[in-house]
Model the fold of this input.
Amino acid sequence: MARSDLRTPDQLRNVSYILDVAPHASASVLIGFGNTRVICAATIQEEVPRWMKFQGVSGGWLTAEYSMLPYSTLDRKERDSSRGKQDGRSIEIQRLIGRSLRAVVDLEKLGARTLWVDCDVLQADGGTRTASITGACIAASVAFNRLLEKGKITQQPMKRKVAAISAGIVSGEALLDLCYEEDVKAEVDANIVMTEAGEFVEVQGSGEEAVFTESQLEQLLTLGKKGIRELCALQDEAIAAAMKPATTDGVKSLAAYFSKK
Done:
């Protein structure tokens, strides 16, 4: 099938990033998967949750929060605070983000600290959870590197990078990195979370009023592996760029970023 953006079946959307968009966070990145854009911010607190103290658990902790801003969708999305409770989808996604990062972080090396990862969706066009995980890994890695630079820790807690991507069966064809238009038409939808070493952290797959075969699942996993390799290479680039001295030549304004999309 011809994709609306003319991508090949195994091609990612344009993936872009702007570093340190949230100055008060330990590290942050505005990551774009096509028209999906998420701010991922990592904030390190010099304390651990009370339950860790009470239970005598050593090391640190990592937790994530996820939200979609009201103007991130075509129809305004009501804030959770206005409804008095968080919706089930947001809870599911933030737990996935937390699990994905804890799978690749050595919390003992973090010390008695908590890493908060906040993922706020500015614009949603499919793949917000996969963009959040990929961007959160960048933000967490940079935050850890800055702790190392300051001498607050002596070893890198990030054991390996983790990234996530979607894949699906649309009109009988396996496609990588679904935009919203494709996602709503998909017969099968999957989200794949993997490390840079090709290890699986989590695979979510379901038939949308349809079933799928083992062969189709293998196609989706093959597409996912290809996408993860490309995303991990981009993560390397972003993490390295964050540790270089800032220069005015490298500064991008958010207005310029959005206007060129």
Notes: The mean pLDDT is 91.
